[in-house]
Structures are given as structure tokens and as C-alpha cells.
Amino acid sequence: MGLRFGVRLGAMAAAAATVGVVVAAAVALPATATADPAASPPPQPSSSRWAPAASAAIHPGVQTITAGGGTCTSNFVFTDGDRTFIGQAAHCAGTGQATETNGCDSASMPLGTEVEIEGAAVRGTLAYSSWLTMQARGETDPDTCAFNDFALVEIDPADAANVNPSVPFFGGPTGVNVDGLPLGTRVYSYGNSPLRAGVGALNPKAGISAGDVGGGFGHEVYTASPGVPGDSGSAFLDDQGRAVGVLSTLNLAPLPLSNGLADISRALAYANQYGTVGYVQLVAGTEPFAPLALPLPAAGLPLPG
After folding, report:
1. DSSP class of 272
2. Beta-carbon contacts of residue 303 (< 8 Å; ≥ 6 apart)
3. How far apart are CA 127 and CA 109, in angstroms?
4. Backbone phi, then psi, for 141, in 5-degree steps?
5. Partner of 96 at 20 to 30 A CA spacing, among 43, 45, 183, 190?
6. Among 229, 232, 212, which Cα is nearest to 221's?
7. Residue 292 pLDDT class (50, 70, 90 cuts)
8. Which SS3 state, helix, strand or coil, does residue 91 take?
């Protein structure tokens, strides 16, 4: 495990300064994981209910600020048919230290906590947290505890007409990846940390997979510029434009400056199996996936094996 990104807003500068001194623990790889990715629901097709991508105020990549928690980047749009949600990392509502990444014993703000959503007129509410759900049911699987870092923020109905599910710059998602991220697979992400001072050209990132971890509940990736505090929770797409992960950690060992992702198919399956928000589906983007050319990480980075 590693440094948790979505630190409380007041601690963001300190966290950025100390990123380089936090050592990630070695991760055991049990044979099974708790949530079956095959149980992850197929994406909800996009429809006329969504605002045009060019004018939508709320979309993947907008910032979220959780009361009592921290500032993060949202990932994908979800629906249960009637309600609309935007995803973030569970640790965005965390109240402990930045190094607390085990969701089975880390403190969090409760469900119902207000979440400020960039572009929304009304604050959303924390509707699901993998951390709170795991703690309530007494989860003991070490991989699930370490990598299940996912939350849903319900968007107020007053703002639902201003939502588009497309990932900026890249388009998509085209669906949900249930196959994992083999070593070397290209990935694409859109972060929106305040530390980038509003320089939009720094938000889109391309990278490569360093392989799956945690029995498939997590993935390690390198991007040309690693995720920083405030990027927590941001969306990752695979080379087919499928939603594959949620940015969770920055690691120093065993893969220096790699980022850890929570697998979205397993996290969503867990939410549907054990959460209380009903049957939730990821919404496909209205814009086609276009893996535009971006710098890749430098050659020679440490890889497993």
C-alpha cells in the first residue's frame, strides 16, 4: 500500500511535500478476491437524458470536496435508473492520516455527508462508501481491504440535467473492463488536482500498466506525470476506452512512483452486492473514445518480474 491521495484539503500542501518519503508495504496475493468482476453490471447506454458534452457543467474529472474529508477528482457517472451518481475514491471522505489506506480500519465521514461538486448548483451527498460498507460487514479479505477504494456521490435532481458521462479529452468510457490490465497495456486518465493551478493541459495523462495486484482488485500503473494529491479518485481507461480503475495511491516500493488503482469492475460489483444504493450501472460516454497521442513514461522504469 502507499500514500493515500485524497488528504484533507488543509493538509494538501504538506502531503505533496512528503510524497517522496512514504514507503509502500509489500502486498500479499491471496488466490481469491471477494467481489466477482463478472457480476459487475454492463454499462448503461447513453441517452438523451444527458447534457451535451461541450456544455455539461458536471462530468468525469470535476473536483469534489467532501465536508470533513478532502478535495478529489471524480471518475465516472453512474445511475440506478432514476438517480444519478458521480464516483470518487472512498478515502476522499477519510478523516485520518494520509497514510491510512486500509479501508477496513480507516476512519471516514458517514453516509449522508455533503459533497461539493464542481459545476453543481446544489451539493451532493455521500451515498455509498466501500470503506464504510466493508467495516459494517466485517470484511476480512486483505486484498479487498487494501484495494477497494470507491464511493458514490448522489447528484441532486436539480443538477441531473447538467450531467454528461464522457471523460474529457479522451471520450468514453465504452464499457467496463473485467479482464484486468496485463503488463504494458496503455492507460489513459484525467486528473484535476488544484496543485496544477488550473493548467488544463496537465490534466490528461497517458501511461502503461505495471500489472495487476491484490488478486485483480488493484492495478499498478505509470503515467508520464504521476497522480498528485487532489487527483485521487480520477478515472482510468484502458486501451479500448473501457473504465478500468480509480486512482487510489502513490507508491515508492516495490515500484517507485507508480500509482495504485482500485479495479472498477470489482469495486462496482462489491457496491451492488453489499451496498444500500440499489443496482448501480456505469454510464457509457456520449463521446467516442479517442486515445490521442500523449507523452508516455520514460523507458527503464522498474517493472515486476
Report:
1. H
2. 183, 210, 211, 255
3. 11
4. -65, 120
5. 190
6. 212
7. confident
8. helix
